[in-house]
């Protein structure tokens, strides 16, 4: 049934389920060659439209966090009185738009020439519900110093659970309200974070806004009170037929998301440059069609959403882009591009410059790598990087030309062979490079004392050894790859959802999830075959190691059992500090990615050990510092932040402004070092990272 429905969409029939007849009122507006659907009634006809509204305060009960033996809860019911007094339901002065509700003022600013025309939210009824969040679908973060909590939850899961409990609401707008909760999309907590979503729920036919009220939230959260709700309400008003579940399904089927119901102008605008974001194209660096952030949002990927609020009385509302920003000031649209602050966006969206699909920016004409100056006594620190060598860079950047600063080179990637028996991996050198040249380059690097490993998997590759029959194919194919190309070892990069802890698997020491148990067995077999010099590394996402501290299950902590089981044969582990949502450190505080505090806090979880899921009965023991590295993304950090983070973790000398304090104040001098994705990007940036971090790591005194 799902495939048939998707086929109708792709064929151009924007048919939606019959339940859509229950949605809130809408009208069409022509602008240029496109027609857009907005919530409310046609401004040309005037009059007042009252949209019936149902407030659904959601009580979230988290199965993996217990208080006195009961699930911890975040209940939005206590925020309903404040919500009713807010500009969403009460009248406030919006200057040019008059004294009215937020949504009405937004529409009146969009259509400034409309006379005696209003779109108001009616007096709501209140229908509270409770949703239990099982392991693997969300977790709770607590600021110990503030006594404040926030949660991060799978938004698709939550939307489905809410509307299982809500029948058709006969044209009413459902306001589903959570408390202090941010969301991730596509079942992948690295696709984070938003404050909610909106549109039409396909199962129930209800129009809805799903977002959080922020009340006594941790100070790491910048937005306040109804700001998240006004963002989603604004997006609903401007695109009331948006269907996030359709968008996700189309994405999974590799079909055109524009085929789904809703306006042709996506809120992510992949063809529009982000204002104030360094000329980036599309969205705000959150790779999901399930939820979208406003062009006025300023936070980087994976943090709690943040943008400058607009104060209305004692409340804080979201500055949003109006339809003229996307579609132009044509038809009846005015020439104001943002609301309530008309200065937040002062000009229409600019199209991105045309780019050839798959093009890789050229390397500098004469990139200069710092020479490697070996010390009399090697100190054990290593600079680790992934080499891809694909695209436009493949013909100009061979493996042989890697900067001498890199010690361990991880070749990306060997991937699942879809034309061979399940479990089989395959590898070919990048396009334009023959086998003989590649093998020669591997030997050349090894002659210089470097280690060259093959990375298995990679982002976007789904691979699992859930069936034990796949293990021989996996072991045999990896063995052949290693032997043919002369690699020193393997790197395991199985990202979500390739590894997921099954329900009921609660003890990392004795895992029962087949995909995890079988991978451990396969790694043992490979090590036994090649011997003690065979290198094995793990590169988990943040959700797969440090997220196991607040919650264990599903993707959260999925590498912990593997790490523990092979610790005696593990060469190193380097957690990706970039594919990660906000998480909690051993000091009980919440940290956002991209900061020295985050790098130190997340790395020390492995160096010091921690209670998995906060349970002292399941203590994950510390790893030797010589097995632990920090993972960085060249496009998501600066050499200054990396330098400071590495110096702090290795020496214990905290840079100015650091909030997280290491449990070991002298640092971890034997820590192996830093990993980067990618060596290719570093070269295109004129070695800005390797020229800085390499000499730094190699220059530390040798450990005893």
Describe what this molecule looks like in 3D.
With 704 residues, the chain is α/β, with parallel strands linked by helices. It has 15 helices and 34 strands. The strands form 10 sheets. Strands 22-23-25-26-27-28-33-34 form an 8-stranded parallel beta barrel. Strands 4, 5, 9, 10, 13, 16 and 17 form a 7-stranded mixed sheet that branches. The protein starts with a helix and ends in a 6-residue tail after the last helix. The relative contact order is 0.10.
What's the short story on this structure?
With 704 residues, the protein is of the alpha/beta class.
CATH fold category name of the largest domain: TIM Barrel
Strand order of the largest sheet: 22-23-25-26-27-28-33-34
Helix coverage percent: 10-25%
Summing up helix and strand content along with how strands pair, one would put the structural category as: alpha/beta
Approximately how much beta-strand content do the residues carry? Answer: 15-25%
The CATH architecture of the largest domain comes to Alpha-Beta Barrel
Question: How many domains is the backbone divided into?
Answer: 2
CATH classification, class level of the largest domain: Alpha Beta
In whole angstroms, how far apart are the ends? 65 Å
Q: How does the major sheet shape up?
A: 8 strands, parallel, barrel
Number of helices: 15
Q: Which superfamily, in CATH terms, is the homologous superfamily of the largest domain?
A: Glycosidases
Radius of gyration: 26 Å
Low-confidence stretches: 1-21, 266-271, 283-288
Coarse morphology: globular
User: Mean pLDDT, rounded to whole units?
Assistant: 88
């Amino acid at each position: 049934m799902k495939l048939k429905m998707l086929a109708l969409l792709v064929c151009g029939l924007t048919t939606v389920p019959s339940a859509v007849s229950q949605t809130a009122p809408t009208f069409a507006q022509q602008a240029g060659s496109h027609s857009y659907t907005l919530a409310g009634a046609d401004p040309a006809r005037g009059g007042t439209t009252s949209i019936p509204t149902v407030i659904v305060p959601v009580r979230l009960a988290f199965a993996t966090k217990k208080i006195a033996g009961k699930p911890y809860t975040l209940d939005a019911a206590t925020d309903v009185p404040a919500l009713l007094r807010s500009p969403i339901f009460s009248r406030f002065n919006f200057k040019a738009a008059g004294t009215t509700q937020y949504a009405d003022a937004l529409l009146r600013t969009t259509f400034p020439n409309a006379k005696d025309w209003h779109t108001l939210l009616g007096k709501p009824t209140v229908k509270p519900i409770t949703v239990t969040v099982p392991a693997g679908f969300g977790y709770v973060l607590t600021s110990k110093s503030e006594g404040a909590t926030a949660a991060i939850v799978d938004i698709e899961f939550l939307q489905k659970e809410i509307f299982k409990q809500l029948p058709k609401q006969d044209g009413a707008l459902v306001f589903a309200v959570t408390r202090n909760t941010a969301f991730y999309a596509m079942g992948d907590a690295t696709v984070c974070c938003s404050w909610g979503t909106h549109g039409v729920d396909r199962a129930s036919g209800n129009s809805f806004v799903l977002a959080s009220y922020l009340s006594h939230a941790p100070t790491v959260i910048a937005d306040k009170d109804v700001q998240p709700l006004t963002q989603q309400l604004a997006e609903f008003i401007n695109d009331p037929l948006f269907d996030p579940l359709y968008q996700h399904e189309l994405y999974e089927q590799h079909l055109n998301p524009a085929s789904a119901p809703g306006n042709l102008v996506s809120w992510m605008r992949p063809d529009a440059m982000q204002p104030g974001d360094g000329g980036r194209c599309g969205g705000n660096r959150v790779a999901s069609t399930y939820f979208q952030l406003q062009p006025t949002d300023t936070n980087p990927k994976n943090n709690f959403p943040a943008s400058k609020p607009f104060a209305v009385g004692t409340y804080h509302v979201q500055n949003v882009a109006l339809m003229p920003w996307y579609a132009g000031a044509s038809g009846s649209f005015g020439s104001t591009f943002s609301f309530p602050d008309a200065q937040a966006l002062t000009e229409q969206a600019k199209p991105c410059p045309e780019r050839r699909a798959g093009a890789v920016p050229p390397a500098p004409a004469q990139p200069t790598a710092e020479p490697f100056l070996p010390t009399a006594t090697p100190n054990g620190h290593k600079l680790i990087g992934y080499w891809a060598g694909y695209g436009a860079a493949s013909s100009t950047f061979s493996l042989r030309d890697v900067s001498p600063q890199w010690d361990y080179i991880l070749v990306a990637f060997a991937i699942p062979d879809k034309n061979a028996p399940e479990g089989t991996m395959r590898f070919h050198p990048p396009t334009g490079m023959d086998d003989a040249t590649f093998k020669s380059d591997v030997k050349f690097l090894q002659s210089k004392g470097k280690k060259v490993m093959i990375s298995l998997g990679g982002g976007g590759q789904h691979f699992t050894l859930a069936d034990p029959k796949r293990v021989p194919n996996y072991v045999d194919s990896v063995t052949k790859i290693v032997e043919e190309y002369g690699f020193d070892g393997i790197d395991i990069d199985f990202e979500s959802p390739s590894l997921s802890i099954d329900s009921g698997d609660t003890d990392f020491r004795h895992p029962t999830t087949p995909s995890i148990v079988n991978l451990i067995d396969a790694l043992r077999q490979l090590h036994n075959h090649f011997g003690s010099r065979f290198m094995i590394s793990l590169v988990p996402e943040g959700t797969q190691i440090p997220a196991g501290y607040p919650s264990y299950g599903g993707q959260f902590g999925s590498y912990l059992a593997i790490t523990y089981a092979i610790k005696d044969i593990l060469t190193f582990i380097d957690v990706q500090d970039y594919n990660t949502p906000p998480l909690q450190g051993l000091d009980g505080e919440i940290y956002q990615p991209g900061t020295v505090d985050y790098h130190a806090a997340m790395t020390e979880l492995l160096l010091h050990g921690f209670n998995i899921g906060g349970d002292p009965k399941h203590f994950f023991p510390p790893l030797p510092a010589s097995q632990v590295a920090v993972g960085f993304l060249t496009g998501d950090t600066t050499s200054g932040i990396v330098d400071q983070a590495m110096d702090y973790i290795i020496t214990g000398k905290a840079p100015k402004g650091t909030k997280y304090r290491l449990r070991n104040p002298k640092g971890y001098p034997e820590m192996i070092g830093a990993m980067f994705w990618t060596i290719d990007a570093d070269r295109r940036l004129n070695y800005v990272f390797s020229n800085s971090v390499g000499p730094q790591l190699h220059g530390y005194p040798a450990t005893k």
